[in-house]
Amino acid sequence: MPYDILPAVPADAPAILALQRLAYQAEALRYNDWSLPPLTQPLEALLAEFKRLVVLKAIPADEAGPGAPIVGSVRAGVSHGVCQIGRLIVHPEHQRQGLGTALLAAIEARFPKAEKYALFTGARSEGNIKLYERHGYRVERRQEISPDLTLVFLDKPGPGAAA
Fold first, then answer.
1. How far apart are alpha carbons 2 and 99 in whole angstroms?
2. Which candidate among 6, 18, 38, 94 keeps its CA 20 to 30 Å from the CA of 25?
């Protein structure tokens, strides 16, 4: 299914937050932790992110227009040459159709001067890790947060990296 990936606006925040909570339920089950930050993020915090991050949304191309359902999203910002990518989410019914890849490529393209792209996911989230590795990311480090949660930090050189 083709998708349109567009800049999100603050009015999209409630729909993005609902999708985020839906998408992260699988992670909560995987880690038996319903207190994961994406599940508990308040709307006000997401709205604040619109002021400092690039937030993209994906809608089915055949449903473009007002009221189109948001089926994917990602956000990122750059600091000291590093583009930090976060909250790459895809509606469960739209997973494994190339949307995660398209969102990742779209957010990277928004930061053409980045020296490095960086992101993280849980160590048990093997599908996420494989997706990122297929797109040139390499495991940089692991950090144990709790006995049940280890984060895997991945990065890859950006177009602005010194040769």
1. 9
2. 6
